[in-house]
Amino acid sequence: MQIHTGFSKLNKREKIDILRKYVPLDEEQISLLSTFRGNDRVTNDLIEKLSENCISNYMLPFGIAPNFLVNGKIYFVPMVTEESSVVAATAYAAKFWSDKGGFKARIIGTKKTGQIYFSWAGGIKKLQSDFPILKERLRAATRLLTANMEKRGAGISDITLSNNTLKENDYYTLNVDFETADSMGANLINSCLESMKPELLSFLKDKYPEVSSEAEIIMAILSNYTPDCMVECQVECDISQFSQISGGLSPDQFARKFEKAVIIARENVQRAVTHNKGIFNGIDAVLISTGNDFRAVEACGHAYASKDGRYTSLTDIEILENRFKYTLRIPLSLGTVGGATSVHPLAKLALQIMGNPSAKELMQIVAAAGLASNFAAIRSLI
Ligand code: MEV
């Protein structure tokens, strides 16, 4: 079969015509593409601009989990998922906890990091002794980009150097820490790193002309591992209150069995992955509804679940006397402005339904959705 070139340059009709040359598609299938594209030209144009080579739009159910009490405030939480039972289960747990104090969430940190990986033959001693001056030069190189962020109390919070020469000759990493206020920050971080690159190279060249080879930037990119952009969410109740949902078990049996299920997820990687998947059922659905980057959050969450060298559950349980406490700690790097959150009309609406939260508030709501969907899953499993 011949390879087609220039597909991206074609208009939608032409793209579909080319596709039909390669793949047998009948008229009914073609009209499916236009049905899902819809008639609203303005919206369609907006959505198409999010990605490339678009021939239609892909619909998913947009649902609501009502009655989410998070830090004393009731939310109706939008969820977009293709999996049946996720919204119902999450809503079930939200309702159960709503008259028991609800979800108590707190932000532990909001730091994000970008990295410049580079090699240089001048040695770590020189780099370290000049690092304070280099840091100032790098900050100055980004001033125009960070000016707006700084007005909101955000921007670059620190720059540190890691020496990786034990693993690879003359190889170092610049770690640039950011606070990005209500944006997820990927664009800002990557732009700042880009403007630091030439500054780093010229600094080393001018300062150390005697070093025979010039520094080489290997790459510069934000890190999606954000263990310091962290939220904790907790529910707690008296064990006797499980009588409402414990089915054939006594409240005490229910609490003990729930505890065993969580301990299994802490100890057993097969179970831990499925357990955490149940958390992401709730989290991803809210992230998709708001146009947030769920791949970044998932990748980070799973890496964080392995931070001690062994993959384990993201939730923890404590039963003390008659009191049941269930906690989720999860890194969530989210935005409520910028990117798809500000372009996709339904993402904007989803945020509006939640009262246009700040990024921190959204982190807390999303963590509650994750804890709720996991709680409901464990309840039905046991
Ligand atoms: C299914 O999408 C999610 C569950 O498997 C999660 C779990 O087992 O905890 C039910």
Secondary-structure map with pairings?
Elements: H1 12-22, H2 27-37, H3 41-48, E1 62-70, E2 73-80, H4 86-98, E3 104-110, E4 112-119, H5 124-129, H6 131-141, H7 143-151, E5 155-163, E6 171-179, H8 186-207, E7 216-223, E8 229-238, H9 251-267, H10 269-289, H11 294-305, E9 315-320, E10 323-331, H12 345-353, H13 359-381
Antiparallel strand pairs: 1-2, 3-8, 4-6, 4-7, 5-6, 8-10, 9-10
Helix pairs in contact: 4-13, 6-8, 9-10, 10-11, 10-13
This protein binds (R)-mevalonate.
Provide an overview of this structure.
With 382 residues, this protein is of the alpha+beta class. Helices cover 45% and strands 22% of the residues. Strands 3-8-10-9 form a four-stranded antiparallel sheet. A hairpin with a 7-residue loop joins strand 5 (155-163) and strand 6 (171-179). Helix 9 (251-267) crosses helix 10. The longest helix is centred in the last third of the chain and has 23 residues, at 359-381. The N and C termini lie far apart (53 Å). Bound molecules: (R)-mevalonate. The site of (R)-mevalonate has 9 residues, from helix 10 and helix 13.
